[in-house]
Design goal:
Shape: elongated
Strand content: 15-25%
Number of strands: 30
Radius of gyration: 64 Å
Number of helices: 24
């Protein structure tokens, strides 16, 4: 044997542990060179993945150089750095192990056995070393199983798995990716920088790495933007978790090495086997953890269900107890007919520790007229200490009563509602229509449970929260047969016990039963009060009947009552006095019995029955015993007390004979006074033109020979005579009694146009802008055309006189519902109020000349002769004279 196997193994081990150049290996190569009798021997190792031989020992300048395998197979010598070396391949069982590169040629046959022995030792030393290494890695896999056994959470399992694999298969990057839809997400990695990285499913990396089978990828030509490193080799291993519902990949990127030398620089099949085995162990550990977690969850659920079941039993016991209390509270309320006592029983039942045990109960009753809630009582403690004491005292008191109903009745009798809480809310107004929670309770009759969540979602109640000073309460409507009587607001401010769904269901029963009990008590009290009132009213009615009869008989007017058939049913003493017939003689007869002059009144009473409206007759003349008497007669409908059924008519006769005679005397005196005033006015108006006539007659006599002056004076005399005629005509017109009118249908628009033509020259002379507006070209009226023309002439002449130079006049004709309205407006100074009141007064004028009868005549024509209306309206920039004429019935639209 040429070589010591131990020495060769130690050299190989030292090479793989420490790398090259290697001192032991260098000594071995030098020893071989001596044996060959040459200067230098260089030892190269075959790297299968790269298909090259790498020099690891020998000449210093050649160490680490690579030689292509094909180059050595085709030639027995090679030139390196300009120097020729003879190549002797080291082979074992047709597997190339390495090669000697010698600076001189040796005799191959002589050293063949030597070369074969070294090849054999080198081959087996390498395999022995790698086998030991693999065994160590397999032992670490077993340790991995132990580590997985101690992990208690799935997240930690992923972390430990990646760490262990990073120790087993040294790589630049290791990561686990999970498929999400069509893309991938890194769930764990070393370095941790890649954790959470999103990898699109359509990327080049995803398509070439996330494969269906485990695989080693050597020299991949794949883009990896998210890794930012050059890819040299990869291992990808797919696996399924969570009952085959989730798909994962563990990926190793670029194998790394320590200080030693390994011929295989890339991942090898053993690395893939390790990765596949580790994934199986990880999947098993994951399934175990998942199972344990599910098992733990089931155990926790069972424990939780047990606790909930126990709580449910306790709650059901408490619910049964409270249901019994509800029965007792309802029974106690029904046993009382006093509304106040019923309310006290309700409040005690809601707040007592023996019964339902709420801390506080606030009672608000509904005011139907004002549509608000009114504070009535607030029962409960003011602080925590009072809560404890109240519960102790209530339980002690309750022990004295075997019967809960008796306990509630006794407690209600001794309870006074003048405590500190009640004083805060007594008679205080609580609007409910604008309040979110109160409106739901009162109007919709729903129990409203308010807590922090509800307050946060809907907003803080505007006045309840500051008043109650708690963030959980329940509003319970007290529901009667047809309406909500009020509400009770309950809370546990001091005990802080939550208000449960069970409490709400119990309160729902209380809501109905309490409302009905309160309503019954109120109805009973009202019925009792009404019975007393009816007895009082009976006495009052009898008194009022006697009193009414007394009043009726002592009235200063005659009262006659007719039924619907027109028969007399009432006849007072004054009627007996006026008409000289007793009540007994006339009852049951008709008015016509008194004479024909009462037939009209009887007919009017039937008209009142038909139209249901009062009719009044002023100064109605009746001949009684050859005397002329005057009465103010009022005929009114007689209704029943509820103004639903018409019973007949009431006729009152008030004797106004004396007043009529006095009125006649007054008018006579006024007429005489007016005649005197008119006479003075006429004398004044006639004196001026007569004086002028006298003066110009004398001038005419003086200048009778002067033709020009004579003509001018005659013209003035003629004008003054015309003026006298006009004055006399106006006075006669005003003083004349109502004349016979010639009514006819005519278009008032055409009449206005005629009047405009008469005054067109005057309008142009003053440069006045004239406008005429009408609702329709044809506005027919039924009137005396000549009289209406006189009104239009008078009003238009006045408008022209009062309009300044360059001013404006506007005439507008409108059709109203039952009238035709004519408005003549002129620009100018508005008429003052003191003059406005006298505008239509006879003989009143603001002009130097004139009788002051023009507007009075207009008023007489419109109102007295045609039943219309005339008035004046001062406006901001002028005045409008307006008159209305009624439309003939067959003309109405």
């Amino acid at each position: 044997m040429f070589f010591s196997p131990k020495v060769v193994y130690e050299c190989v081990s030292d090479l793989f542990e420490k790398g090259f150049p290697n001192e032991k290996l260098q000594l071995l190569v030098e020893e071989i060179a001596k044996n060959f009798g040459v200067n230098f021997v260089n030892l190269a190792i075959y790297e299968e993945n790269r298909n090259v031989l790498r020099i690891i020992a020998g000449e210093e300048n050649l160490i680490s150089k690579k030689i292509e395998k094909e180059l050595l197979e085709n030639s027995r010598n090679v030139i390196i750095d300009g120097k020729r070396y003879f190549v002797y391949l080291l082979e074992f069982e047709e597997n190339i192990v390495g090669a000697f590169l010698i600076d001189s040629e040796i005799e191959y046959k002589k050293y063949k056995e030597y070369l074969e022995e070294f090849s054999n030792l080198l081959y087996h030393s390498y395999n022995l070393f790698m086998t030991k290494k693999r065994m160590q890695r397999m032992e670490k896999l077993l340790e991995m199983t132990d580590v997985f056994g101690n992990v208690v959470s799935i997240d930690d399992l992923f972390v430990q798995f990646v760490k262990l694999m990073f120790d087993h298969i040294k790589s630049e990057v290791i990561f686990i990716a999970r498929k999400e839809n069509e893309d991938y997400v890194v769930v764990q990695s070393i370095p941790e920088d890649f954790k959470g990285t999103f990898i699109p499913g359509f990327s080049d990396f995803s398509l070439n790495v996330f494969l269906e089978m485990p695989k080693i990828i050597l020299k991949p030509k794949i883009e990896s933007n998210f890794l930012n490193i050059k890819l040299k080799s990869l291992i990808t291993v797919p696996f399924m978790l969570n009952d085959e519902k989730e798909k994962y990949w563990i990926v190793f990127v670029n194998k790394t090495h320590g200080s030693g030398y390994i011929p295989e620089k890339s991942f090898e099949s053993f690395d893939l086997e390790i990765a596949v085995d580790a994934v199986k162990r990880f999947s098993l550990a994951y399934s175990r953890l998942l199972y344990f977690q599910k098992l733990k969850n089931e155990i926790d659920k069972l424990k939780s269900l047990k606790i909930e079941h126990e709580k449910l039993i306790e709650n059901q016991k408490e619910q049964l107890r409270k249901m019994n209390m509800v029965h007792y509270i309802s029974q106690a309320m029904r046993s009382s007919y006093d509304p106040k006592e019923v309310l006290k029983i309700l409040l005690i039942g809601l707040t007592s520790g023996r019964t339902l045990g709420f801390n506080r109960a606030l009672l608000l009753l509904k005011d139907d007229e004002k549509e608000v809630l009114v504070g009535k009582a607030w029962l409960g403690p003011a602080n925590d200490e009072e809560v404890i004491n109240e519960w102790k005292e209530a339980n002690q008191r309750a022990m004295r009563y075997g019967d809960v109903v008796q306990y509630l009745r006794e407690e209600s009798m001794s309870l006074t509602l003048d405590n500190e809480l009640t004083q805060k809310i007594l008679n205080k107004i609580f609007p409910y229509k604008s309040h979110r929670f109160l409106e739901r309770a009162v109007v919709r009759r729903k129990i409203v449970h308010v807590n922090k969540r509800v307050i946060y979602e809907t907003g803080t109640p505007d006045f309840l929260l500051p008043l109650l000073e708690t963030d959980e309460f329940v509003i319970v409507p007290l529901i009667g047969k047809t309406d909500t009587i009020g509400v009770v607001i309950l809370d546990n401010k001091f005990s802080r016990h939550p208000i449960t769904a069970t409490d709400i269901e119990i309160l729902r029963i209380i809501s109905d039963s309490a409302g009905l009990a309160i309503e019954n008590a109120i109805n009973y009290a009202e019925l009792k009060e009404k019975t007393l009132n009816l007895e009082k009213q009976k006495y009052v009615i009898e008194y009022l009947k006697d009193f009414s009869e007394l009043i009726l008989q002592n009235l200063s007017a005659a009262i006659v009552v007719l039924d619907k058939e027109g028969k007399i049913s009432e006849w007072n003493r004054k009627a007996e006095k006026y008409f000289k017939i007793t009540k007994e003689q006339i009852i049951g007869k008709k008015l016509e019995t008194l004479g024909n002059q009462f037939v009209e009144i009887e007919n009017l009473s039937f008209q009142v029955l038909k139209e249901k409206k009062e009719i009044k007759l002023r100064d109605y003349k009746i001949h009684l015993l050859n005397q002329e008497r005057f009465f103010d007669v009022s005929i009114s409908p007689l209704w029943d007390s509820e103004r639903i059924i018409l019973r007949g008519t009431i006729i009152t006769f008030e004797d106004v004979t004396e007043r009529v005679f006095l009125e006649r005397e007054r008018k006579k005196q006024e007429k005489l006074a007016a005649l005197g005033e008119m006479s003075a006015r006429v004398v004044h108006e006639l004196r001026n033109p007569i004086s002028v006539l006298g003066g110009f007659v004398k001038r005419l006599e003086k200048y009778s020979d002067d033709e020009n002056k004579r003509k001018r004076y005659l013209k003035i005399i003629s004008d003054e005579i015309l003026r006298l005629e006009n004055i006399v005509s106006e006075i006669l017109e005003f003083s004349r009694d109502r004349r016979v009118l010639n009514y006819e249908e005519f278009n008032i628009n055409e009449l206005i146009s005629e009047v405009f033509l008469l005054h067109e020259d005057k309008i142009r002379l003053k440069n006045i802008l004239f406008e005429f507006k009408t609702d329709s070209e044809k506005m027919e009226v039924y009137a005396d055309k000549s009289r209406i023309k006189q009104v239009l002439i008078n009003l238009l002449q006045n408008a022209i006189d009062e309009t300044p130079e360059g001013g404006k006049i506007e005439i507008r004709v409108r059709r109203e519902l039952k009238t035709i309205k004519v408005e003549i407006w002129n620009e100018g100074t508005p008429i003052p109020n003191e003059i406005l009141e006298k505008m239509f007064t006879p003989f009143f004028t603001t002009k130097v000349h004139g009788t002051g009868l023009g507007l009075s005549i207009c008023k007489k024509i419109i109102e007295e002769e045609h039943g219309g209306k005339i008035w004046v309206e001062p406006r901001e920039n002028g005045n409008a004279f307006i008159f209305e004429l009624p439309i003939k019935e067959n003309e109405e639209v």
